[in-house]
Amino acid sequence: QKEVEQNSGPLSVPEGAIASLNCTYSDRVSQSFFWYRQYSGKSPELIMSIYSNGDKEDGRFTAQLNKASQYVSLLIRDSQPSDSATYLCAVRHLNTGNQFYFGTGTSLTVIP
Amino acid sequence: GAVVSQHPSWVICKSGTSVKIECRSLDFQATTMFWYRQFPKQSLMLMATSNEGSKATYEQGVEKDKFLINHASLTLSTLTVTSAHPEDSSFYICSALTSGRIPVAFQETQYFGPGTRLLVL
Question: What is the predicted pLDDT for the residue at B101?
Answer without folding.
Answer: 58
